[in-house]
Design goal:
Elements (H helix, E strand, L loop, with lengths): L1 H16 L6 H11 L7 H25 L3 H18 L3 H16 L9 H19 L6 H27 L2 H11 L3 H20 L6 H34 L8 H16 L6 H13 L13 H20 L4 H7 L5
Length: 335
């Protein structure tokens, strides 16, 4: 809807107000600037619009100075790429400038003046920026969806690790390891959507309310990022120990407790008061992570795994709002 309305506005301005019969670039610049990308930050929209208008302007100047033809086309592409690289190190920016320069060189010149296409490009870019501020995409919806995807993966991984610890099934451990190794893109997606949400909430008057939630999610993400990395290490250790025939049965209940804490943190996405409950639960859980505190003595492999689980629980506690130094002080001393 945002793309459709913004394109329609660009067309109306260029065609009805400015009298351009075929305002092709006004519409294409609008669509390309807004795009379907997950990054909807105003800075990205402005960068894309600037690249397209720059390419059009450079090519129009080249047409005015040298006319059209094969060598003129090559010169326009070369100049466009050179100027683009001077302005930005982003390869996509340079390619966008060059493509627009090519279109201006090869398409039939429109009526409406020598620089009608430059004006159309400016209209399209400004329309895209206007709709980014006044009718933006919901900046929180995508962030919540990305967060839910990461939490879903962590919860399923912890549930499977609990099963693996109780059944000693190495095939399931292999599957868990393969799945959790693909978690980093989920973390990156959540970070990207939060950055975009933060930028939109600062620009749009309709989404100022989202700034608090974005800030809360950013704090949650820091701890969850570290926890996910540690969970990959733990999954690798579990897989290795089971391949050697080691028993991890006594650690099964611990994975259940960690799963409960992750579930509490996920609930904090909708009700941030749950973060305090998760914090209290995790601080109590940290104090139990003593190899000598189990009813049955742990085997050496289980002790090693427990020592790797401790940083995971610390990271989850940080995600819940516990100070990192305080969380480490709560850990039982190990000789």
């Amino acid at each position: 809807m945002q793309l459709v309305l913004a394109s329609f506005l660009s067309y109306l301005i260029a065609h009805q107000l400015l009298g351009h019969p075929v305002p092709l670039l006004a519409v294409t610049v609008t669509i390309s600037s807004l795009g379907f990308t997950r990054d909807a930050r105003p800075s990205r929209v402005a960068s894309t619009a600037l690249a397209m208008v720059t390419g059009v302007a450079v090519s129009e100047v080249m047409l005015f100075l040298f006319g059209s033809g094969g060598w003129q086309l090559s010169l326009a592409i070369g100049v466009a790429l050179l100027l683009a690289r001077l302005f930005s190190k982003n390869p996509a920016f340079a390619l966008t400038v060059a493509i627009q320069a090519v279109l201006v060189q090869l398409l039939t010149a429109p009526t409406g003046g020598d620089y009608a296409r430059v004006v159309d490009g400016l209209v399209g870019g400004l329309s895209a920026l206007l709709f980014t501020a006044l009718l933006p995409r919901n900046p929180i919806r995508l962030a919540r969806r990305d967060a839910a995807a990461l939490f879903g993966l962590m919860k399923s991984t912890l549930a499977d690790l609990r099963q693996v610890a109780l059944t000693s099934d190495p095939e399931v451990a292999d599957q868990v390891l393969a799945r959790i190794r693909g978690s980093q893109p989920m973390v990156d997606n959540w970070q990207s959507s939060l950055d975009s949400a933060q930028a939109i909430s600062k620009v749009s008057p309709f989404y100022r309310w989202a700034q608090k939630e974005v800030a809360d999610q950013k704090l949650l993400l820091v701890g969850m990022d570290l926890a996910t990395r540690n969970l990959r290490v733990i999954s690798r250790r579990v897989d290795f120990l089971l391949q050697e025939g080691k028993s991890l049965e006594r650690l099964g209940p611990l994975f259940s407790k960690i799963l409960i804490s992750v579930d509490l943190l996920e609930q904090a996405l909708d009700d941030f008061s749950m973060r305090a409950k998760a914090k209290k639960y995790l601080e109590k859980l940290i104090a139990t992570l003593d190899p000598k505190g189990f009813e049955q003595q742990l085997a050496l492999g289980e002790v090693v795994l427990l020592m790797q689980i401790r940083p995971l629980v610390i990271d989850l506690a940080v995600a819940a709002g516990t100070d990192a130094s305080k969380a480490r002080r709560l850990l039982p001393k190990v000789d």
